[in-house]
Amino acid sequence: TLAAALFPDMPSPAFHGSFTQLLVGAMGSPAASSASGPSPPSPFPVPPGLSRTALLGSPSLFSPTGNFEMSHRQALAQVTAQAVHSQYTIVNQADYPLPFSSTTSAFTSQHVNSSANITSTEETPTPPSLTGNSNFKPNEVSQGFQTSALTVDKPADDGYNWRKYGQKAVKGGEYPRSYYKCTQAGCPVKKKVERSACGEITQIIYRGQHNHQRPPKRRSKDGGSLLDEVDDFHENGDTLNRSEQGSQDHSAKFEVSNDGITVPSMSKRAEGDDQSSGSSDSEEKACDEAGADNGDGGSTNAKKRHVPAPAQR
DNA sequence: AGCCTTTGACCAGCG
DNA sequence: TCGCTGGTCAAAGGC
């Protein structure tokens, strides 16, 4: 199989199976198509606003033992190389081990589908997001896009509660980067979320490891239903992944589009859900229609306030 | 009331 | 030492 070809050192047949799933998802994506040869920009319909953005949850490829870590990295390298179109990058930044359980591979599949970039940095311990709940569930992403005006910039929600503590335009302002901290008292986890000028999440970098269990859902307004689904998923079928540390519960939930392509739920939303259309909606639209015009990503919600206070420190 | 986002300023690392 | 850049702080305001 292609999976085997790409990831020769795949541990077990079982894993092969799940990983294949992953690839299958990938095959339906531009990234995948690019893997089998040059392909035009976007061979398949992309929901407005979502554009070819996708997540690639690689963590799921890892085995708890860590043996697979290397192969995963290799895999990453290869997939990344192939996912030329990828716009979504999940970075496993230092501090994260990669003890991902194979069961999460399903999760990976969906993300791969639309081409993505995965960047694993050294000593990646378990990024709560990547592995645990892989934090990176499409649903979460969608959530990020569908949140109310208040949380326009909320990144993929991984089940943990985050507080944004800063935003900065890096690299010449090309990518506004948002900084989030886990709101759990004493939890050192932080994450950086980069968005394209269109407001699309292009990269998420986790740092640190959650030292607590995922908190129970509490905010239903930001994508509550989706999250609930995710939670159910966690509780029902993915519990085995949470083996050791609560911070490493791996879970994956993805949705399959009509094409049989796994799609992050955000695309789902883009396809017709506008019940929670927020600024992000028009934002993305603007992106499609006018290109990266509204720049400034996260700060797009033109809320003018906060008069520069006198010297703060 | 509590939590969260926004955003300019501050701080530290690096070349 | 200086300037640049990325990361963080914290006041103000919104929900």
TrEMBL record:
One Gene Ontology MF term: metal ion binding
Where does this one sit in the cell?
Nucleus
Record has Transcription regulation as a keyword: yes
The reply to whether Transport figures as a keyword in the UniProt entry is no
Q: Which residues form the WRKY domain?
A: 157-215
Q: Where is the composition biased (Pro residues)?
A: 38-48
Basic residues bias (residue ranges)? 209-220
- Give UniProt keywords alphabetically: DNA-binding, Metal-binding, Nucleus, Repeat, Transcription, Transcription regulation, Zinc
Polar residues compositional bias, start-end: 130-150, 238-249
**Principal location:** nucleus
Q: Which GO terms describe its biological process?
A: regulation of DNA-templated transcription
Name the GO cellular-component terms.
Answer: nucleus
Chain intervals for the UniProt region annotation (Disordered): 29-58, 113-162, 207-309
Recorded family membership: Belongs to the WRKY group I family.
Q: What is this protein called?
A: WRKY domain-containing protein
Q: Which gene encodes it?
A: LOC100832704
Q: Which residues of the full protein are shown?
A: 50 to 362 of 491
